[in-house]
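Ops channel
N.P.: pipeline sanity check, posting one input/output pair.
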């Protein structure tokens, strides 16, 4: 392809900035960059969605798309005609193949091999999701083996190289944003629920407010309080270093700008790796006599995962995970997941 134009490079930089910001009062802020991607690359359609298995059928868990003729569309838990397992859509939505994770592909060229025919299920699914088979370019954005979202769209065949460049340039920012969205439940994040959301994370997290030329800690969670008590100077130094390296995506904390109407400038800082997580889970397992499965569920719960994600990690149903979570609440005497997280962090410091 020709060298990217200045206009395209400018779009990439603005889209990266847009994806990095968590807007408390704008739950559909994916729309702006999706429309920018469509317009700058000549796409017929661009989309972020996730296909999941609902019983023995495939369904769209969530979808936001930009269409050249119809604007934006959104769907939730829409059942499709294809059955599971999903060989007809060229990937397994429950656990994509390693060579399809976090790479940009033109699937009907890169995934289909030789003379393999396009299966009717592929056409049915593409029609249901308003995609064209020819010229489709996409990335399966994953966290390890777990699918976060399908990102891409449908282009004229001659535009697929440019589409590939744009998607590849944006993929790290898209993945980070999807990880943040998952941590907060794929739901509009209301300012009033921010503290509860932080408390449900089992890694140190801080809300920093910028006042008088410096960042101050406005909110934190049990893991964050433990980090501050254990090493206040080191924790503040890591926060400052991560803030300084915001645009490089480096540092001990993932830094997400937070915006809301009428609120001061803020930054959400979430630790990239757990602190003493294994020790705390082990201490809780011994104290509360947890089974091996309950211990596994607790470890994933402390990372802020939903029941659905825990089920995907452990290859069991959401109902089974709910039973384990209920057992954990009963054994620890906690009333809520947030109380359970706080109890593990506060009562059993190594």
């Amino acid at each position: 392809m020709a060298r990217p134009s200045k206009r395209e490079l400018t779009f990439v930089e603005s889209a990266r900035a847009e994806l990095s910001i968590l807007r408390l009062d704008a739950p559909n802020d994916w729309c702006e960059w999706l429309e920018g991607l469509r317009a700058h690359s000549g796409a017929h359609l661009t989309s972020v969605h996730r296909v999941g298995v609902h019983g023995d059928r495939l369904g769209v868990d969530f979808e936001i798309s930009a269409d050249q003729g119809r604007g934006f569309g959104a769907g939730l838990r829409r059942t499709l005609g294809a059955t599971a397992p999903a060989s007809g859509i060229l990937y397994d939505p429950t656990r994509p193949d390693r060579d399809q994770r976090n790479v940009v592909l033109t699937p009907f060229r890169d995934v289909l091999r030789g003379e393999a025919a396009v299966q009717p299920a592929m056409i049915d699914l593409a029609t249901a999701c308003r995609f064209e088979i020819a010229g489709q370019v996409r990335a399966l954005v994953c966290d390890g083996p777990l699918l976060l979202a399908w990102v891409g769209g449908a282009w004229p065949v001659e535009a697929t190289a440019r589409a590939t460049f744009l998607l590849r340039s944006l993929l790290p920012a898209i993945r980070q944003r999807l990880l943040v969205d998952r941590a907060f439940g794929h739901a509009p994040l209301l300012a009033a629920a921010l503290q509860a959301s932080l408390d449900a994370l089992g890694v140190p997290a801080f809300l920093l407010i910028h006042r008088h030329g410096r960042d101050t800690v406005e909110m934190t969670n049990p893991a964050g309080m433990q980090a501050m008590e254990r090493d206040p100077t080191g924790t503040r130094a890591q926060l400052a270093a991560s803030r300084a390296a915001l645009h490089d995506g480096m540092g001990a904390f993932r830094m997400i700008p937070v915006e809301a109407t009428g609120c001061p400038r803020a930054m959400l800082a979430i630790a990239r790796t757990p602190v003493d997580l294994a020790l705390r889970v082990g201490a809780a397992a011994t104290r509360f006599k947890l089974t091996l499965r309950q211990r596994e569920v607790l470890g994933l719960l402390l990372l802020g995962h939903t029941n659905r994600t825990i089920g995907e990690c452990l290859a069991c149903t959401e109902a089974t995970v709910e039973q384990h979570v209920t057992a954990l609440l009963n054994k620890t005497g906690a009333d809520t997941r947030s109380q359970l997280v706080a109890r593990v962090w506060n009562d059993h410091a190594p």
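N.P.: looks fine end to end. The chain has three domains: 6-183, 191-271, 277-347.
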